[in-house]
Structures are given as structure tokens and as C-alpha cells.
TrEMBL record:
Cofactors required: pyridoxal 5'-phosphate
GO molecular function, one term: transaminase activity
Keyword Cell membrane recorded: no
Keywords, in A-Z order: Pyridoxal phosphate
Pfam families: Aminotran_3
PANTHER family assigned to the protein according to its UniProt record, in alphabetical order: GLUTAMATE-1-SEMIALDEHYDE 2,1-AMINOMUTASE (PTHR43713), GLUTAMATE-1-SEMIALDEHYDE 2,1-AMINOMUTASE 1, CHLOROPLASTIC-RELATED (PTHR43713:SF3)
Protein name: Glutamate-1-semialdehyde 2,1-aminomutase
Family designation: Belongs to the class-III pyridoxal-phosphate-dependent aminotransferase family.
């Protein structure tokens, strides 16, 4: 009945999750590392609400902070007026190498839109370069650059740069000419496109995490930094997914490469809606440029909403106080999962490769760790990948039900949860 009602009143009916696993499953509740469907079945959750839940669902600290904010009389008086806003801005600037000033937004997509506007204002150029298989949100600036690797095998020669494939109607044609796509981990392609001298920004997830976990080759991010410096292009790290999951300082702190601008979202407020855009002071100064033609206004009724700021503050305070414990524990749990999964699949007669960065992991159905999207599109056995995910959901383990999607471990997962996941995986792979 609930599904029928959704179909009638919600455009498109159900979410992609339900399209993939069938409409009958309706998730109604979550706590810690678990989610429950309407029939009361429990699932160990690695989808983590599209990845924000670093501390798990319904974390007590975060919820208490939110409830306190609601009860405190704090309200939307105006962006920048809430004392906690400056406090979390200071914490972010102290923690993240590439941040000298920030602005808050409500979502990751908005943070990306503003980063691109800032880059265009700073350079006086229009073109933006994105990565194939990267996802930088839903804004019309970069559109929907996320393709199911099952959709298409790349129709371009490796190393070529090409226009964004507009797969969704209603997106302005202008992006055909102003957004260029290259493959990740291909420095020569980056050089060819940047050398034209008309590129305002190169934006990328430093680790591609919307097509699993695709890591930068040694020297790749450093190479992009050098090319952007040489050709006057603003380097933007989209850390909406990588930020706070891998380190308090973002993946940039691990890589030791400093972008000009960067964006955050998801884990910054552990499931409450907040995005962050920030970077070098002289670029962020455009927010207050005396020339109205250059000024970049970052606005939004709910930017800096007290509830979300309270959630981010609670999350950041905990990360700051227990940074080493949090990330070593996530690493330990990730390693336990990796060892178990690799042992289980080692005995199969088809290839799999487990790739992990800390608590984020992906199991590819191919014989090597992918180098970029094209590599995945050409080699991953999407059918088996999806069959595995569907069978795991039936068994009570929730990995996102689409091929090559990333899974996330949270601090709410225990050793027992991991071991139970492994036991269920062992049962499932016998049927594949
Ligand atoms: N950038 C990246 C890297 C993302 O993973 C996402 C969300 N999946 C976004 C931007 C968009 O964030 P939001 O959904 O909060 O708009």
C-alpha cells in the first residue's frame, strides 16, 4: 500500500534503490549499523545513507546536540550570525590544509556549484574539466556525469577529452561546450585539455568514490597540481564523499596535495544536510568583491541552519578530540572486512578485486584494481556484481544495489557485525 501511494504521489515513484531491489522492500527504521524493512527484517547496513554516517545511524551525541539546538531557541536569524557557525568554520580551517576561509551550504551539490562559480570569477574563463565516472552533484554546471558502467563502453579513445554526455533531458545545452570530460589517472589527457588555456577549473573526487573506490596512481594528484599551476586553472577537490571519512583533514591531508578550492558534505554533519565550500583566501575574497560583476554571492535560506550546524559541531568536536582513535578503528574494521572477503573470493573460479581506502570499500568483479571508469566499463562483470548485491540483501546485508557502488563501514559496526557479514557472504557466494 505504501509503495502504491508513493507511485501515485511521488514523481518517478520509488527511489533507485527500490528500482534495483524490487518495490516490495521498504526501509522504515535505522539505528547504529542496522536498518529495518517494513516487515521487521534487519540488515547490516553498508550503504550508510549514501555514505554520510561515519558514526552510524541515530548516533546519540549528534542527536543530543540537535535536540539541544532545537530547544535552545536558536533560529534562522541570518547566515553568519550563529556563534557555532564561526566555531565550526575555525575547526574546519584548522583541520583541512586547503581551507583558509569557508562558506556553508545545505548540500554537496550547492557547494560544488559555488566552487565552480568562484573559479570562473577568479579566472574569467568558462570551461570546467570533470572526470569520467566522477560525480560532482546534480547542479546544471556539471550535470549528471555519473554513468552506470553497464550503460556504455566508452565511445572515445583512451586519453581523449570529450564533451559531457548529456544523458538527462532538461539540462542546458551550454554544458556541451563548457564542460569537458577526461579519464581519471590520465595526466597526459589533463595536460592536453589544460594547455589550451581556457579552463577555469578542474574538479575531481581525489579518490573516485561514486564508481566504487578508484585510487589515484602515485604522482597523479601532484601532477594535476603542477598542471593547474602551469596553466592558471583552479584545482578543486570534491571531497563531499572522501572528506572526514578518511581523515579529519580530508583526503588532501593524506595525499599531501593542496587544492585551491574544495567541497565537503555528507560526513561533515553525520547525516544532517550540510555542505562546505572553501579554499584560498584570495579566491574566497570574491564573496565580498567590491566589483558587483565579480562578486560571488553564496546564499541560501537554510545555509548555516542551527540544527545542521549543531550536528556538524558535535561531529567535528568528536573527530578533533579522538581523531587517531576514530580513523585507526575505521581502518582496523576495514582491514578485517578486506581480509575476510578476499579469503572468501579467493576460492572462486571468477576474478574479483577488493579495493579499500580506510572504511570505504568496493568489490570489483574483475581481475585488477581499476585505474579509471573506462577500465571498469570494459572489465567489470556487472551482471555478477548486481546478482551478488541482490543476494546479499536477501541474506540481510545491505550494499547499495547497483554495480560498482562503494560500501561504507561506520564506527557503529562491531567486529561481530563484520564477522556476521563475512559468514553471510560465504553462504551467498556459493550460490553465485
Ligand atoms: N560530490 C560528490 C563527490 C558526491 O558524492 C555527492 C553526492 N553523492 C555530491 C557531490 C552531491 O552532494 P549532495 O547529494 O549533498 O548534493
Amino acid at each position: 500500500e505504501a509503495v502504491a501511494r508513493r507511485r501515485q504521489y511521488i514523481a518517478g515513484g520509488t527511489m533507485s534503490i527500490n528500482r534495483a531491489i524490487g518495490p516490495a522492500k521498504l526501509f522504515v527504521r535505522a539505528k547504529g549499523a542496522y536498518i529495518w524493512d517494513a516487515e521487521g527484517n534487519a540488515y547490516i547496513d553498508y550503504h550508510a545513507g549514501f555514505a554520510p554516517y561515519l558514526f552510524g545511524h541515530g548516533d546519540k551525541d549528534i542527536d543530543d546536540a540537535v535536540i539541544a539546538a532545537i530547544g535552545s531557541g536558536a533560529s534562522l536569524i541570518g547566515a553568519g550570525t550563529m556563534p557555532w557557525e564561526a566555531e565550526i568554520a575555525e575547526m574546519l580551517v584548522e583541520a583541512v590544509p586547503g581551507l583558509e576561509q569557508i562558506q556553508l551550504t545545505s548540500t554537496g551539490s550547492e557547494a560544488v556549484s559555488y566552487a565552480l562559480r568562484l573559479a570562473r570569477a577568479a579566472t574569467g574563463r568558462d570551461t570546467v574539466v570533470v572526470m569520467q565516472g566522477g560525480y560532482n552533484g546534480w547542479s546544471d554546471y556539471v550535470s549528471y556525469n555519473l554513468m552506470d558502467p553497464g550503460d556504455v563502453v566508452a565511445d572515445h579513445r583512451e586519453g581523449d577529452e570529450y564533451p559531457l554526455r548529456v544523458t538527462t533531458a532538461g539540462i542546458p545545452k551550454v554544458i556541451d561546450t563548457t564542460v569537458r570530460v577526461i579519464e581519471y589517472n590520465d595526466l597526459a589527457a589533463a595536460e592536453r585539455v589544460l594547455a589550451r588555456g581556457d579552463v577555469a577549473a578542474l574538479i575531481l573526487e581525489p579518490v573516485l568514490q561514486n564508481v566504487g573506490v578508484v585510487k589515484p596512481l602515485p604522482g597523479y594528484l601532484e601532477g594535476l597540481r603542477e598542471l593547474c599551476d602551469r596553466y592558471g586553472t583552479v584545482l578543486i577537490f570534491d571531497e563531499v564523499k572522501t572528506g572526514f571519512r578518511h581523515a579529519l583533514g580530508g583526503y588532501q591531508a593524506i595525499a599531501g596535495v593542496r587544492p585551491d578550492l574544495c567541497t565537503f558534505g555528507k560526513a561533515v554533519a553525520n547525516g544532517y544536510p550540510m555542505g562546505v565550500v572553501g579554499g584560498r583566501r584570495e579566491i574566497m575574497a570574491l564573496c565580498n568583491d567590491p566589483d558587483p560583476g565579480r562578486r560571488v554571492i553564496i546564499a541560501g535560506t537554510y545555509n548555516g541552519h542551527p540544527v545542521n550546524v549543531a550536528a556538524a559541531r558535535a561531529s567535528l568536536l568528536r573527530l578533533k578530540a579522538r581523531e587517531r582513535d576514530v580513523y585507526s578503528e575505521l581502518e582496523r574494521l576495514g582491514a578485517r572486512m578486506q581480509a575476510g572477503i578476499e579469503a572468501i573470493f579467493a576460492r572462486r573460479n571468477y576474478p574479483t578485486t577488493f579495493v579499500r581506502q580506510g572504511s570505504a570499500f568496493a568489490l570489483y568483479f574483475m581481475d585488477h584494481a581499476p585505474r579509471n571508469w573506462r577500465d571498469i566499463a570494459l572489465h567489470n562483470d556487472n551482471e555478477r556484481d548486481l546478482a551478488y548485491r541482490r543476494a546479499m540483501i536477501e541474506a540481510g546485508v545491505f550494499h547499495f544495489p547497483a554495480a560498482t557502488k562503494q560500501s561504507s563501514i561506520s564506527l557503529a559496526h562491531t567486529d561481530d557485525d563484520i564477522d556476521r557479514t563475512l559468514a553471510l557472504t560465504e553462504d551467498v557466494v556459493r550460490t553465485l
